[in-house]
Amino acid sequence: MTGLRICLIASSRFPVAEPFVGGLEAHTHALTRALIARGHSVTLFAAAGSDPLLGAHALATEPFEPSEGARRDVGAPPLQWMQEHHAYLGLCLALADSGADRFDVIHNNSLHHLPVAMSSAIPVPMLTTLHTPPTPWLESAVQYAAAGSRFVAVSAFTAQQWRRSVRSAVVPNGVDTARWAAGPGGGPAIWFGRLVPEKAPHLAIHAARLASIPLDLAGPVLDRSYFDAEVAPHLGPSIRYLGHLGTEALRRRVGGASVTVVTPAWDEPYGLVAAESMSTGTPVAALARGGLTEVVSAESGRLCESQDPAELAEAMRAASRLSRRRTRAHAVARCSIEAMVVAYEQRYAELAGLRHAA
Q1: What is the rounded distance in angstroms from the CA atom of residue 180 to the CA atom of residue 270?
Q2: Which residues contact 202 (CB under 8 A, 6 or more apart)?
């Protein structure tokens, strides 16, 4: 298709750069690279410090020091909230002023409410990806969305969660299966992601001990008190923390693992960790939460209906015996970034066509 001028709005919270803080940043980076490679002109608005190779424009979260009177307001929102609010407000006002001359379509890949709430004031059609369950701010913003706005969800489960507020098509997230190449397996189990309570790495630790399988953990420590209480006391020769790794180092560790353990304590909207693991051929033992049930198949992993470490330990043993070749084949067929980008291109073209027909 003819290259489009795409405005891609990312989160202002964390940079779209390695090592990625979370799946949203990894997803945005991969999407931007793929769109550019397919001949589109992409202007990415993201947090400061994002990958310069993407030509990202920083969302200006300007420092703000409230006055003495404002500090006395007990109902004032946190400073970070205000900075992010004004960053998106500034971007939306700029798009309302000159966006029509610069872009054919806007892809709102952020978690912020303002792009949706202000879309009717912006003369460029907007597609918003729903990466999370409904949040009060974003759910309330939907009622102000432009009539021509479109929404997609990252899984059928997430689309169902949003059904009360908005109709959304399903475009599953994808991974670069060439970059997440096949690995030899056979090593310790691995858990990777943000080390926070809602990702529950402590469950993986308990299950690994019951299964008598060594476990490596990798990812950023975003909740130090949780890490110190639930993870650090268990570290030793058989339970290791590898740190926050870049993609290539992480791919080698995941590809060398016997099984990846995925332990969300919430309903996972998609489950990018599982897709990345399966792309390397490493099967998955996961809790059956949210979109993970759509990502992990019987040939690529085992799902647990409870958070019982004993059930998860058995799932680890069973998953580690699955065929690595079939696991990767499942990821290539069902979780590729190519399928995701083609689906987005179709929706971009529809929106751009509607605009030019108006």
Answers
A1: 18
A2: 230, 231, 234
Q: How many other CB atoms sit within 10 Å of the CB of residue 284? A: 29
Q: Can you tell me the distance from the alpha carbon of 218 to that of 230, in angstroms, rounded to the nearest whole number?
A: 15
Contact 117, 96 (CB under 8 A): no
Alpha helices in the chain (DSSP H): 23-37, 68-71, 79-102, 114-117, 136-141, 156-161, 201-211, 224-226, 247-255, 272-279, 292-295, 309-320, 324-334, 337-357
* pTM for this prediction: 0.92
Do 344 and 31 form a contact (C-beta atoms < 8 A)?
A: yes
Q: How do residues 250-306 score in pLDDT, each as one tens digit?
A: 999 999 999 999 999 999 999 999 999 999 999 999 999 999 999 999 999 999 999
Q: Domains, the chain, ranges and CATH?
A: 5-174+336-357 (3.40.50.2000), 189-334 (3.40.50.2000)
